[in-house]
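## retry 2 of 3
previous attempt timed out at serialization; input unchanged, resubmitting
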Amino acid sequence: MAVAGVTSGFWLQHASNEAEQLVAFADELAETPAGRPGVSLGPLTTAPKLGELYRRCRAAGDAILDPHGHLIDRTHTQRARQHFPWLAQTPRPSGQAEWEAWMRDGLALQEAATLRGAGPAPSFVVTPCPVIEAAKGTPELYSVLDAAEVVAGERPPGTDCWVGVAVDRTYLRDEPHLTRLANAMLATGATGFVFRAAHSQLAPADDLRYLAGLREVVQACAANGIRIFLPGSGWLGWLAMAWGAWGFSGGMAAGTWVDRTPGPMNRPQLPSQPYFESQLLRSVRWPIHEQLAAAPGYQPCVCADCEQMGAAHNLELAKRHQIRRANEEAQPLVSMSQPVRALTIGARLEAAIAFRETLTPQLQARVSAAFLDRWLSLV
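## retry succeeded, writing output
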């Protein structure tokens, strides 16, 4: 399906596990007032399975096949070597010509008839991007983005080719690097970006320098009429809609709610027995939820999954609950202008802070919701 003409906002993010549940849930959400979100799929399974999921999603609504070029910088799996060899390329490409060839392989995946079946060719594709590290200097930044500009320009009429950009957090936290990044992105002439900037924090991120840098990138794109999608950013992506972001995503897997730098301590990325507290805009452990539920002014969620969960935690239902809330929170923002979005999100943050302040000091310490003040300061 074409992304240029579809509703922006919240998208479901495919991960290597629970893909069947995710796709089925997308169909279930179609019957809710917020509607069916699009689904962002990626080469995280076998090629035949990816094709099956892609065809199912496209038949029911909107779908993106994100090439996940940043995976070239992760440990290469046997699955990638067999089904998506360009993501396991060794040695890694170097120089603009090699990056162009690699990106063509990533676009070929998205355009492959073997994946889409009898469906039409996609009208939306994304150039893959490795993780560009500030410590390596600017040559790779320029060669990768120059390659993306060339390859995007090769797409046939009617194909909207967005540019994938994946950078380390230094590009957002360091002012000279941030300026170079924003200028280089705008110079590509892209109609949209699929932007990743992994950081080192568990959700919710409150690194002010990182957040301010992300805001500058998003605002620069919005000011120039360029759409920017933040995959796997979760509630931080919701915040970024106040700055003009086109959309964001989250899914069944904990890692799809935080764009965190991979490392040996990445699991669990959400607390044990997680439950998303809508009034505080963050996930907490179920025992803390039970304490919050007894606090004055607490408003229990009445979604179908919470009603079914009742007084005992159920991980699958808790995941579905968070997805529902993100879809419901994002849907009204889509039709708003950016200034009205900012006011709406600011009011939502103020309400969360007001509720936090009604809690006892002990419970405030347990919920760790100080991030709300930093988020509000950036709206």
